[in-house]
Design a protein that fits this description.
Elements (H helix, E strand, L loop, with lengths): L4 E9 L4 E10 L7 E4 L2 E8 L9 E4 L6 E12 L9 E4 L5
Antiparallel strand pairs: 1-2, 1-7, 2-6, 3-4, 3-7, 4-6, 5-6
């Protein structure tokens, strides 16, 4: 399986140091407990979101047109002393699950 990674489309605090991240361009599958990094800052996935149309943590179908699209979804992460920005990439730390 591919190493998980995704691009931050939007984010919100729940409260710091926890962040809800809305992701696009997802590759691989996020998992609770997975170690991740953004720009060299490390964190842990605490929870996975579920898409309201298909109930999956990562969706690949546009609910309006039915045409395939890049993977999208949301995760809750804990990141110490870091504030994510739109457009940054989050990715799995190699060798962790």
């Amino acid at each position: 399986m591919a190493i998980f990674r995704g691009q931050i489309e939007d984010w919100f605090n729940i409260p710091k140091p926890r962040f809800g991240l809305m992701l696009t361009q997802i590759v691989g599958a996020p998992k609770v407990g997975m170690r991740v990094q953004i720009e060299g800052c490390f964190g842990t996935i605490l929870e996975l979101g579920r898409n309201s149309t298909d109930g999956q943590p990562v969706s690949y179908r546009d609910c309006v047109s039915g045409m395939p699209c890049a993977g999208y979804g949301s995760i809750l992460v804990e990141l110490d002393d870091y504030q994510p920005e739109r457009g940054q990439w989050i990715e799995e730390v190699a060798g962790t699950k």
